[in-house]
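Backbones bend. To wit:
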Amino acid sequence: MALVQAIERPPRQWTSERLWAAYERVEKDRVRGASRGRLLTDLISLARHAMGVEDELVSYADHAAARFDNWLAQQANRGRAFSAEQVGWLALIRDQIVADLEVRLEDFDETPFAERGGLGKVWSLFGEDLAGIVEELNRELVA
């Protein structure tokens, strides 16, 4: 991504970790959570805060976790219950969205999904609802 390359270029050679740490020093009361390392999505949180879109600097993972919990609560309110195994898969999907900003059905045959049975396994758990769930999670967690 061009933004990442621009901030890492000399003479400054910034990284999202260094920028996050600087905000922690300067705006301690407005920074929640810690940068998760070199996740591109943390750079999005930094940019949104720097532009004034977000008053607090909150890691992208923390935002996504809150949105995920909200989505699960909405599903429960609609009478849709998930088994523990399904929730485990939903959490994997959430984590992949945090890392890559989206999950596609093709991704289920790659790490970390393939090690748990891949597309065949997730399809057996969610069936025809899988594509809709993936679409919803992509939309809700990236918002």
Residues 60-77 form the longest helix (18 residues). The chain has two domains: 2-58, 62-142.
